[in-house]
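Sequence only, no structure available. Ideas?
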Amino acid sequence: MLNVVLFGPPGAGKGTQSGNIIEIYKLVHLSTGDILRGEISVGSELGLKAKTLMDQGILVPDEVVIDMISSRIDENPDAKGFIFDGFPRTIAQAQALDKMLEQKSTSISCMLSLKVSDEELIHRLVKRGKEMGRSDDTEETIGKRIQEYNTKTLPVASFYAAQNKLHEVTGTGKVEEIFRDIAKILDSYS
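Reply:
I predicted one. Tokens follow.
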């Protein structure tokens, strides 16, 4: 089973590259944001619990998110693997994910970390904000999101580096060239 953590700051191209990975490698996409919205929309017990917390402005606890991911994995017993997008965001989440996957007799195969300069990220996100009318893609909010990523999320890369699972990929250039670099890494796991 090929289980991939797709990692990188906002605007690094995770959405674009996860689409390519899913299409070619037939992995199941696990986006925590999508999972939360899905659980809430179907009114599941976990979804109701998450909605109650979110309505109070409280972050959904790691255990609830892990339970949701675990459910999705169980719902896809024939999957060739999973791509984790937007999770884990902290070392505690990475440890909980590893523990949960171990209970299912699998593990994270690798982390693909898209490396893009802050200047390029700002350029991409401002452009996206203008093209898509996204109010969260202003230079001020982008700077805060990049800083938040660098201080709180980036340490997760060290967690997987310690397990020899981290692969850094240059996230600038043509989409096809970036994907070619990603495919070389993923092919080494099959």
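The chain has a mean pLDDT of 90.
Hope that gets you unstuck.
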